[in-house]
Amino acid sequence: MPDDDKKRTAHRALVDRILNGEGKTSKEQRARAFGNADVPAELPALIGKVTTRPAQVTDADFVSAKASGFSEDELFELVVSAAVGQSTRLYEAGLAALAEATVDGEDR
Questions:
Q1: CA–CA distance from 53 to each of 18, 70, 92 (Å)?
Q2: What is the rounded distance in angstroms from the CA atom of residue 53 to the CA atom of residue 47?
Q3: Rounded CA gap, 52 and 65, in Å?
Q4: Are residues 12 and 28 in contact, defined by beta-carbon separation less than 8 angstroms?
């Protein structure tokens, strides 16, 4: 199996585990965080920062989310889901750009 196929297979397995594996949060909550869409009202600030400005995530963001009733385990799962979702979008965009830039393995 070529390295690219191994990487894509590993990535698909990661995404499948995050979205469909067992966890403290529901599959629906993880899918919403993964897609950065329709997250619970208490979480848009945290999830939005994770996906667009991760360096700006602060302890206060976690304190606020935890105060609204989410456990540390739940927040961990949702933050990881959001981060992997954003990484997936970037990964897929990169693969699409690479595919567009090459035709039959040759640079355009």
A1: 21, 21, 19
A2: 10
A3: 18
A4: no
Three-state SS string over the chain comes to CCHHHHHHHHHHHHHHHHHHCCCCCCHHHHHHHHHCCCCCCCCHHHHHHHHHCHHHCCHHHHHHHHHCCCCHHHHHHHHHHHHHHHHHHHHHHHHHHHHHHEECCEEC
* 23-71 pLDDT tens trace: 999 999 999 999 999 988 889 889 999 999 999 999 999 999 999 999 9
Whether the model clears a pTM of 0.90, i.e. scores above it, the answer is no
pLDDT at 104: 59
Q: Are strands 102-103 and 106-107 parallel, antiparallel or unpaired?
A: antiparallel
Domain boundaries, the chain: 3-107
